Amino acid sequence: MNKGKRNFFLRLLSWAFKRFRGMSKDGGGTRELSSGFLSDRVRDELIAETNSYGGDLLEIGCGEGMFLKEMVSGGKNKKNKLVGLELFFKMLERTKYVLGNDREHIDFVQAGGENMPFKDGSFDRAVCVNIFYNIPTMGLIEAIIKEAGRVLRDRGVFIFEIRNKYNPFMYLLYRWVYTYDTSIGDLPLNTYFYHEINRFLKRHGLKVIRKKGIFIPFWFLSPVFIIVARKA
What we know:
alpha/beta, 232 residues, seven-stranded mixed beta sheet, 23% strand
């Protein structure tokens, strides 16, 4: 690829990446974390998918609390135990502004997803929203999947999404990001093949029961897709 074509290609990726990151609004004001067209669409789709199942709910990596806020809005899920797990204390502080009075319906725990301080079989639903693509290693992803399987009750579901490595646009968008957007610093941005993730799920007693593409109905072509895995 000559220099002119390469620069055009990088400008195109930069435009798409900034479009996906974009700024958006919530109850706490302007935010940059967990923001943008792509992240917001993923969250909306996972909210709808999670509401298809019942029972006690754990969000792994709850961040600003935006997913959990939607889960309790209008009285939804208030009869269930709702727990937000988050590694960073400052992020948990942020939830006070995002959740407001809804915070009283949710328990928050500061810990990492690879070592959850919960008993075996504590939840019916475990969810990861906009998390896996920032996980630095495959070993850590497997550890989170293993822990999700452990804390789920029998027939419980683990619901999450992955950025799809089968989709060439998503792969190149993240593969070249450090070339055209240095503002993300050392933050990892990763795509994955389905078979990589499914291998971990099978190894830890979780069976995929649903795959749903976001933006494109065919999951294997979609830039992002949802996975629902059930504990046997």
